[in-house]
Automatic annotation (TrEMBL):
Keywords: Membrane, Transmembrane, Transmembrane helix
InterPro entries referenced in this protein's UniProt entry, alphabetically: Membrane_assoc_protease, NA-bd_OB-fold, NfeD-like_C
The protein's name in its UniProt record: Membrane protein
The keyword Signal appears for this protein: no
Gene3D superfamilies noted in UniProt: Nucleic acid-binding proteins
Subcellular location(s) per record: Membrane
Any single Pfam family the record assigns to this protein: NfeD
Membrane disposition: Multi-pass membrane protein
Length: 143
């Protein structure tokens, strides 16, 4: 046991911290593993055990303190590019069959959709342009 250098133990620790990173997908384990790699580098340069532990702690805490808030901020941002039905909301469509409170057909983004008017008292005639305000299932709600 005494024949194995300290830097090897730090790399074993880094690998051991990589396992829960992969299993749990918690990035904090990766930051701790990076701290262990930094301590292994310090041990490779012949730094004492206390300094190695301090390098591990400083690098790990610095990564957690700096990287984690940035990652949380990016995770909470909504996507800038609307896709799916969210991309269709607010688009204009052309009425193909009369649309009223009970139904009808429109051409939306090159496709034929079933549609109904948001205001049940309102009707839209063939050829008229309407705005899509919502999508419920396969039916566009228009005004």
């Amino acid at each position: 046991m005494n024949d194995i250098d300290a830097w090897v133990w730090w790399l074993v620790g880094a690998a051991a911290l990589g396992i829960p990173l992969v299993v749990t997908a918690m990035p904090e384990f990766g930051m701790l593993a990076a701290g262990a790699v930094a301590a292994a580098v310090a041990a490779g340069f012949g730094v004492g055990a206390v300094a190695q532990v301090l390098v591990f702690i400083v690098v790990s805490v610095a990564l957690i303190a700096v990287v984690r808030p940035i990652a949380n901020r990016h995770g909470k941002q909504s996507p800038r590019l609307a896709t799916g039905i969210d991309a269709l909301k607010g688009k204009q469509a052309v009425v193909l069959e009369r649309v009223d409170g009970s139904g009808g057909r429109i051409k939306l983004a090159g496709e034929v959709w079933s549609a109904r008017a948001l205001d049940t008292d309102r009707a839209y005639d063939v050829g008229q342009e309407v705005d899509v305000v919502d999508i419920e299932g396969a039916t566009a709600i228009v005004i």
